[in-house]
Amino acid sequence: xxxxxxxxYRPLQLLPVLLxxxxxxxxxxxxxxxxxxxxxxxxxSTPEAIARIRAQFGLDEPLWVxxxxxxxxxxxxxxxxxxxxxxxxxxxxxxxxxxxxxxxLGSVILAIAIAVPLATAAARNRGxxxxxxxxxxxxxxLGFPAFWLGIMLIILFSVKFDMFPVSGYGDGFADRLxxxxxxxxTVALALSAVLTRxxxxxxxxxLSSDHATAARARGLPEGMVFWxxxxxxxxxxxxxxxxxxxxxxxxxxxVVETVFSLPGMGQLLVRGIxxxxxxxxxxxxMAFACAAVLINFLADILTAAADPRVKI
Amino acid sequence: xSAPLLDIRDLSIEAHKDGERLxxxxxxxxxxxxxxILGLVGESGSGKTVTCRALMRLLxxxxxxxxxxxxxxxxxxLVTASEAEMRHIRGARIGMIFQNPASHLDPVMRIGxxxxxxxxxxxxxxxxxxKAQTIELLRQVGIPDPQRRADDFPHQFSGGMRQRAxxxxxxxxxxxxxxxxxxxxxxxVTVQAQILRLLVELRDKRGLSIILITHDLGVVAQTCDxxxxxxxxxxxxxxxxxxxxxEPLHPYTSRLIACQPSASAEAGLLPSIPGQPPSPSAWPSxxxxxxxxxxxxxxxxxxxxxxxxxxSNHVAACHVTAPARLADEAA
Amino acid sequence: MKAGSISLAMPVRLPVPLILGLxxxxxxxxxxxxxxxxxxxxxxxxxxxxxxxxxxRAHPFGTDNFGRDVFSRVIWGTRVDLQMGLIGVLFPFIIGxxxxxxxxxxxxxxxxxxxxxxxxxxxxxFLVLMLAIIAILGPGIGSFYIAMALVGxxxxxxxxxxxxxxxxxxxxxxxxxxxxxxxxxxxxxHIVPNALVASIVFSMSDVVLVILSGAAVSYLGLGVxxxxxxxxxxxxxxxxxxTTAWWITTFPGLAIVALAFGFSMMADGLxxxxxxxx
Lengths: 312, 331, 278
Description:
The structure holds three protein chains of three kinds.
Chain A: H1 6-30, H2 36-41, H3 47-57, H4 63-75, H5 89-124, H6 129-141, H7 146-160, H8 173-207, H9 210-217, H10 222-244, H11 246-259, H12 265-274, H13 278-306
Chain B: E1 6-17, E2 20-32, E3 37-41, H1 48-55, E4 64-73, E5 76-77, H2 83-89, E6 94-97, H3 101-104, H4 111-123, H5 127-140, H6 146-149, H7 159-171, E7 177-181, H8 189-206, E8 209-214, H9 217-223, E9 226-231, E10 234-240, H10 241-246, H11 251-258, H12 261-264, H13 298-302, E11 308-311, E12 314-316, H14 321-330
Helix pairs in contact in B: 4-5, 4-7, 5-7
Chain C: H1 16-33, H2 35-38, H3 70-106, H4 108-123, H5 126-137, H6 141-168, H7 171-178, H8 183-219, H9 231-238, H10 247-274
Helix pairs in contact in C: 1-3, 1-10, 3-4, 3-6, 3-8, 3-10, 4-6, 5-6, 6-8, 7-8, 8-9, 8-10, 9-10
């Protein structure tokens, strides 16, 4: 299909953005005052180690050559070694990616599961008490701090009712699922506020659209008009909205991982900042940025699949 | 004479806005026989589209409602019909096509599936039967290579093809009546003629009745059997096409005919009716056309003229022309 | 987004959300300004004989593990968080609008370069880039403001650039140019005031984002530092006592929700009034 040809060339268009990400990360880490070799190695560095890192990162060369060294290391999959964990940063990220990925996926699914019924109820009963209530709650929801929401859920479901564990990641699939419920719910609730507001607006527009009127004129019952014609059309902009919000979503997981002590990339980043483990900060920041770029690309594919008119 | 398929009597429609009630359509009556094509003519805002939406009972309920009259369709009053009854009439017995086929087709559903949807719903066809019937319908409305085009999305069709698909969709369940709301306005002239020819052909083959809403008397001349002219929410003249177009009674109809491009082409300029069509919040008193009428007399300002039968089936509502013609006929 | 204009001749009916938003924000401003007179206790005064007390008449929101009055701390916190929200928006607003307007008006290579930078900054998850910048500058409220300015300007730049591009080709700008007005005059007298409407409306919803980010950064321990009474810190400190003293975390969170709701309402109402839609 012609419309999907962008899947082939889009990655090439994304290269400059990825390069830009690497430049920003490079500049950020190099703007820390002090000897980069010592910073990268921490306080307990031996002269040999310093010499080795100087050679690997070309620290005696001019800045732009240093950047080329940085790029070369990047292509070889070398992002340095964590001072704290004393292992390769790439491996470290690989170990921590699981909880973060399941948190993001779980909360997106949960958020859609919350937002679609709420937006439906509001849009189909426009101007009613239900609609006003959902509107006010979702507007208020925009201002719910995820970390506070998480703690409130812990107080309610863990402390009061003892339904879910307070924190941690658990062992084995069932246990992990059990541990992930509250973190996912936290992010999902915050996300569903934005989703509900937008979905409601697009549903209202679609409900009074010409093609919905035409469907009614063909004798389709209101329910069928909604599920077959209104909903599919209003979901298209929502995919886009999710993609736009992916950066925000990742930020949310960073905080929520800290709240629930989930051993994910976000927690790794925050610890890295406190322990001045700059290799880790650099690696995680870059991994997150690349993930956001990738997810936007996937969202484009999904949008093209959902809306036959889209040409990218 | 057998009863007409559709008989609308004294239909009135009100709008409410900020607690105010406005009469959008007032005591409109007309009927359509089986196999008849009726042209419903008027400027935008004259109430022709609202009237047809009302007979499908598709008025937006928060702003518009039927305030009086009856709509008799095949012996059943649609004004009092339940929503469930209406669902079996819409699409199945009355089909509707619209001015802008691009926006009236679901953009993210394949054409074939949209047609099949009605077949499965109203005729309880299996998906396989529906698919075969869909292709047959597309062939009947003149879409080339229907097998393949059924899997296309609306945006892949040209404007004319979209309108053909829309007609196939409206005719899927073999309705007795088709309401065509300005079906050719958004199309090129050549495509326009093709679509009109298709409608006439369908009437000839299937005995379909059609209400053709238009503001173009040229379209009426080409296709219709009879015509009803609406102005400011009322019917001002109706009758057989030939009579109305050849010997218009109401000054408004006369002006409309004079404004047709073909009639005035030689004159080199296109005359138009002076003044603006009135809006429901400021209907003129008496005959609503009087502020724009050259022949208005004092009576036109104070009292609304009733429809008077001048000749068999030819009626008009005018204080000046109708009595004059009646006197002529009598003489 | 589409910007409309309001007719000044007509008496303008204020949208309900706008009035509600103004009331909440006004209330917060009063609390912030008069915190010393309204708060019944010193927000950082420790009282070891009175720790972890549940809400009572003397302490409506209870006391924390140091015996500090949570009610007073929430009131004083208004000062810090409101200030954080407003200053946190101010710098991105100025930088972003300036860059965006110039980029859109000048066009060409300048525009291309700025927009590529915007793309790259936008590719980073907002909070992650901010945390990385704070990591380098070291924890503290100053670092938060700098990080906010470096990351937050892009939204404004994009918004005003789009508006500028539209206005640049509008009739009245063409007219102004044909009258021989200078570029500076056209830009600051004609384009910027019109383009700014959308930015101002957006800045109201942006305040919500900034307050949430500021509180989150402080919660993580990278923003405002203890013992300052700030809502994010209070929540972080209270998290250790959720099994015994729910009130320490609950009330500052509700304060954030209320303030953010005020700004969201303000944004909705202002958008409605000025005819700007997101």
